[in-house]
Amino acid sequence: MSHTLVTGAAGFIGYHVARLLLERGDQVVGLDNLNDYYDPELKKARIAQLDGMPGWNFERLDLADSEGMARLFETHAFDRVIHLAAQAGVRYSIENPLAYGASNLVGFLNILEGCRHHEVQHLTYASTSSVYGANEVLPYSVSHNVDHPVSLYAATKKANELMAHSYSHLYGLPTTGLRFFTVYGPWGRPDMAYFKFTEAILAGRPIDVYNHGRMRRDFTYVGDIAEGVVRASDLVAKPDPEWTGEAPDPSTSYAPFRVYNIGNNESVELLRFIEVLEAALGKKAELNMLPMQSGDVPATAADIEALARDTGFRPHTPIEEGLARFVDWYREFYGV
Predict the structure, then answer these.
(1) What number of other Cβ atoms are within 10 A of residue 139's Cβ?
(2) What is the DSSP pairing of strand 268-269 with strand 216-217?
(3) Active-site residues: which are they?
(4) Which of 38-47, 72-81, 134-143 is predicted with the least confidence, judged by mean pLDDT?
């Protein structure tokens, strides 16, 4: 049994990770500021699902509150930290860049400082497939260069990886970054495409389909993702004895530092994803075909061999099953 801090616990992935930890008997402190980037009532409903579970405590706190974060680490003796809180969204980073500096940069620094000063055994944190940016080589490999992000959101996540490495080097703090691909499933985020599609299709409204439906994404079911996050947290990062500065692998280090892709290892075209969603809903969509948006990339695909080798992680939920579960949850939660 470990004592784990899960930040972003009222969020989509954070809720599922916290629940999985609690179900196996861990003590979990969940942190979230319950901001209004999307409906706070959905976030509160997720937390309500966890309230009353043995070992659960919730703290409402903003990551950027340095004094509050320092008190949090002083109050609790965390063995591990799973940092999933962030200002998410590629397109929103164009509209509101300052929110990304506060949450993703200042907030992450507060997490690193808390871990450093209180001897946390392992920090596992969320990165993103968006860091691959202008890279067109698929599948994306953690050994690829990621120096050309195409959104501020991606740039802040690349910065998180660099900041984590500096703390692994300076203070011996074991850190593991997880580059998430497109996650979907029950209790999902309303700002994500599949959630918007479902709402619009059921209401009889057309859906906006970018890049004329030719986008390809590595869609990964949230239950598989939660399992992978917990497996990664359990595997404390260690120095790589084969790492060399003459041929540096960006995914490992002489310091206790690791970066992994976490995805489904299969890229699906958006039009196919919509077909499966239509079948789950029992209703056809009206498609409004549009060009690709600024900050987007045409395709993502994850090479997850490193994570599979080191942790045994293998996603096993096909989109037909995952989307059916999402639709069942959506109908129940919203009474549709």
Answers:
(1) 19
(2) antiparallel
(3) 153
(4) 134-143
User: Which region holds residue 20: left if phi is over 0, alpha if psi is between -120 and 50, else beta?
Assistant: alpha
Residue 298, CB-side half-sphere exposure with 13 Å CA sphere: 8
* 140 or 50, greater pLDDT: 50
Inter-CA distances, 259 with 54, 125, 173, 232, 253, Å: 32, 10, 14, 10, 10
Radius of gyration (C-alpha) of the chain in whole angstroms: 19
Strands (DSSP E) contained in the chain are 3-7, 27-32, 56-60, 80-83, 122-128, 175-180, 182-184, 207-210, 216-217, 219-221, 257-262, 268-269, 287-290
Examine the pLDDT at 267 and tell me if it is beyond 90: no
**121: which DSSP letter?**
S
Q: 230 with 307: CB under 8 angstroms?
A: no
The Cα 121–Cα 98 span in angstroms is 31
Mean pLDDT value across residues 295-315: 89
Contacts of 197 (CB under 8 A, 6+ apart): 207, 274, 277, 285
* pLDDT above 70: residue 295: no
Q: Is the pTM of this model over 0.90?
A: yes
Of 261, 265, 274, 278, nearest in space to 316 by CA: 265
Q: What is the pLDDT of residues 156-205, one digit of tens each?
A: 999 999 999 999 999 999 999 999 998 999 999 998 999 999 999 999 99
The pLDDT tens digits for 193-231 are 999 999 999 999 999 998 888 888 999 999 999 999 999
With contact defined as beta carbons under 8 Å apart, do 123 and 174 qualify?
yes
Residues in the chain: 336
Edge-first strand order for the sheet with 3-7 is 56-60, 27-32, 3-7, 80-83, 122-128, 175-180, 257-262
Whole-angstrom Cα distance, residue 182 to residue 132? 14
